[in-house]
Write a structure and sequence with these properties.
With 148 residues, this protein is α/β, with parallel strands linked by helices. The protein is built from five helices and seven strands, in the order H-H-E-H-E-E-H-E-E-E-H-E. It has two domains: 55 residues, Molecule: Ribosomal Protein L15, Chain: K, domain 1 (Irregular); 73 residues, Ribosomal Protein L15, Chain: K, domain 2.
């Protein structure tokens, strides 16, 4: 008895037609092939959100990213600020106006080892408590206020 393969010897397509015997021909390609072409109805019926962009994103230029500094970094750079004239040192107390330096927010990581008076737009509770524990002060600057 002959098997199926022997039966089709000499036949060009082995009974499959022109494309069915080549690769993924009968199913129209492998995977997601043809979803914008010959399988478009499948896309419309079963995967309507497969193509295109979804949701909204703001332009990156519109994101508000405040310039920040930690209290530990502020302590390390305090002498450099005084040397460059961006801060003042009087009777062992540093007075630093972070708004003039271009820093918007004071964060609380690090240690405070000297008295500091900081003028800033915004400060975290941790930063404020560390500076006050060292005998310093944090003054929040309002936009209307011209305090130096």
């Amino acid at each position: 008895m002959r098997n199926r393969c022997e039966k089709f010897r000499g036949s060009r397509t082995h009974g499959r037609g022109k494309k069915a015997g080549r690769g993924a021909g009968k199913r129209g390609g492998r995977g997601q092939a043809g979803l914008h072409k010959h399988k478009y109805i499948t896309t419309v019926k079963y995967h309507p959100d497969y193509f295109g962009r979804h949701g909204m994103r703001r332009d990156p230029s519109l994101y508000l990213r405040p310039n920040t500094i930690n209290v530990g970094d502020l302590m390390e750079r305090a002498d450099a600020f005084v040397a460059s004239g961006e801060a003042a040192l009087k009777d062992g107390v540093y007075t630093i106006n972070l708004q003039k330096i271009g820093i918007d927010k004071l964060l609380g990581t690090g240690r405070v080892s000297a008295k500091i008076v900081v003028l800033v737009d915004e400060a975290t509770e941790k930063a404020t408590s560390k500076i006050e524990a060292a005998g310093g002060e944090v003054r929040i600057i309002d936009d209307d206020d011209d305090t130096e």
